[in-house]
Design a protein that fits this description.
Elements lengths: L1 H20 L5 H14 L13 H12 L4 H9 L2 H4 L4 H8 L1 H14 L7 H17 L2 H15 L7 H21 L3 H15 L1 H13 L1 H21 L4 E7 L2 H11 L10 E7 L2 H14 L1 E2 L5 E2 L12 E6 L5 E8 H9 L1 H8 L7 H10 L1 H12 L3 H12 L4 E5 L5 E5 L4 H8 L1 H5 L1 E6 L2 E3 L11 E5 L9 H4 L3 H13 L3 H18 L4 H4 L2 H11 L4 H9 L5 H10 L1 H7 L13 E4 L13 E4 L6 E3 L11 E5 L5 E5 L3 H9 L4 E2 L1 E3 L7 E10 L4 H11 L3 E9 L4 E10 L2 H12 L4 E7 L4
Parallel strand pairs: 2-6, 14-16
Antiparallel strand pairs: 1-2, 3-5, 4-5, 5-6, 7-8, 9-10, 9-11, 12-13, 13-18, 15-16, 15-17, 19-21, 19-22, 20-21
Helix pairs in contact: 1-3, 2-4, 3-4, 3-9, 4-7, 4-9, 6-7, 7-8, 7-9, 8-19, 8-20, 9-10, 9-11, 10-11, 11-12, 16-17, 17-18, 21-24, 25-28, 25-29
Length: 745
Amino acid sequence: MKSDTLVATKFDELLAQIEEYNPSCDKEKICETYELAARLHSDQKRDSGEPYIIHPLAVASILASLHMDDTTIMAGLLHDVVEDTDMTLEDIRELYGDDMVVLLDGVTKLSKLEFRSKQERQVENLRKMFLAMSRDIRIIIIKLADRLHNMRTLSSHHSDLRKKEIALETQEIFAPLAHRLGIYKIKWELEDLCLRYLEPEAYNNLAEQLTMRRDEREAFLNEVSETIRTHLEETNIACEITARPKNFYSIYRKMVRQNKSLNEIYDIHAVRVLVETVKDCYGALGVVHTLWKPMPGRFKDYIAMPKANMYQSLHTTVIGPAGRPVEVQIRTYEMHQVAEYGIAAHWKYKEGKGVDNSNAAREVDNRLNWLRQMLDWQKEVSDAKEFVESVKGDFFGDQSVFVFTPAGDVIELPDGATPIDFAYRVHTQVGHQCVGAKVDGRIVQLDTTLQNGNIVEILTARGTGPSRDWLKIAQTNQAKNKIRQWFRKEGRDEFSVQKGRAMLEKEALKNNIDIAAMFKVERLNDIIKRTNFVSVEDMYVALAEGAITTLGIINKIKEDPILKKALLPEPESPTPNIGQSMKVRPFSGSNATHDKGVWVKGEADLMVRIANCCQPLPGDAIVGYITRGRGVSIHKADCSNVHYYEAHEPERLVDVQWDNENTGVFQAEIEVLAMDRDALGMNIMAAISETKTRINSINFEVDEDKICHGNVKMEINNLNQLEYIMNKLKKIRGVTEVNRKAGAR
């Protein structure tokens, strides 16, 4: 039969493919395995109508293209027999032993996972996948080969919706996994196939445009390649040069991200130069930069600083012939093997017989650190949505920066990451106890964006904890989730509730909403129904953490006829009664973090805020100023603004005093002047941390006279606490002045 001939031909091609890179393969065992798989699948057909055995043969061929070992290739031939035939794992154990059982059991379990299910199931499925990978990384390599062939053969029998579901799952899970493992051959093809089904119009347009320009592009690349080859031969550097177009998906992503047409994207292809040694790599780079001017900011040294997936290469973009930019990639033949096959290349050496394979084994283990992090972290995270978003965003994102610990270890983080993200990636407790950071030996602010090659040192102090402001600074979901967990564990949710309520109150006032009516239980229940929250407290916490906006809530109120009528009555003009003394609620926009109290002569329910110009603390002499529409602002009695009000608007000043029965947390800022020396910043932060005071930000700059100017923002309860800290800092060696600063003007 024609189909039998086709199958036999496919198997002969597979054998030839294996023998080409592994002449000593167990050909007899591979043949027996193929015959077993063919017999077990003999009555089965694919959706296309072709014999089912075509699929296992294709999977085995993909594995052979990665130069995998005999056991892995045989597992590829058998990967569906446990699920789709009467063959059991015990049968497999008798025929092949435990190693094969581990592979087939893992692949079978992965085949049953659905990654586009409800988030609780997604978490469990991701966990199972990570566990399978941790047992034997070849399990996921087989699964990637399986997914690649399935994507190649998405049948017309599948609905368009089903095709898109499979493609989206592949794009979100399997293509990033191939990237993480450094198997670019599979990654690029999966990405292009996903684009074909998810954005068919864009895919077809891109293919058409690239085809139209193919002859011109090939002529240009040939000119670049021959010029490099000629000059490398003159310098006695043996090389192999190829030119390749970048995959469709990466070009499409650049067009979307940069909002440019194909004609405006210059690095749609690359010239690859393969040489013998690392020394030759840098020699070739010098030749290329002699031939053409390099473009600023476009050189990347992945040899000195390899990617987490083991990729090593030199990348440079130069202004080539006719002023056209071109990317040149330079690496050794060995590096090229890793670039193509990723972790599979190291696995071959790890499993090698009769050789010292300890380095390869260690390399594989080191490159799977991220997998162990995922498994550990999954145990800590209780929220399914948080975990799924973090896996897809932090670990499967395609834009990364690579930074060093002081010990020289490489830490990979998403693009835009800060020292806070770095601290939490190193260890949860390092993150919680972070009080500052050094980048390349200089103290920096915690919101500093890390760059490739930075050496990052986290400064810690016991007894401290994260700040809520870090939620705005951190870029990784992992760091944000651990910060939230700390506050939940420490029982600090009450703060979020109060902060969220205050934020909503402030926005409501801006929109002339009846506050008293809005905060009645029945109205709050109406609001949370329209915003899909389980409770009012959940809504407040979401507001405090930035998950939703106050304006979004107000718009929901305005859009609802019943709420609008109840909460937006005709405005009235109340007449203030300045005659009675009473305690009023603090203004929601103040920088207090909890329930501070101020006594003021005025109307009930006036809003109160702490003036940012002078930032008074309990213990300071204070004066109130009735603002136009923003309640009463509280100033220090000697504030320059108060002097202005006394001269121009004395009728707006009111008597106020602190309510000593209520304590709150206020922001204070101090300036420290000192003679610069080693560990000065560490000593200052440690001294403050010893007082159990939260540091919100800290910045040090050294002038040309070697005078260190430090600015520290802290959360303070009262003036006595601030003065105690200032006196403590004055005792530090080298400190000459410690002054309290007013707020930003």
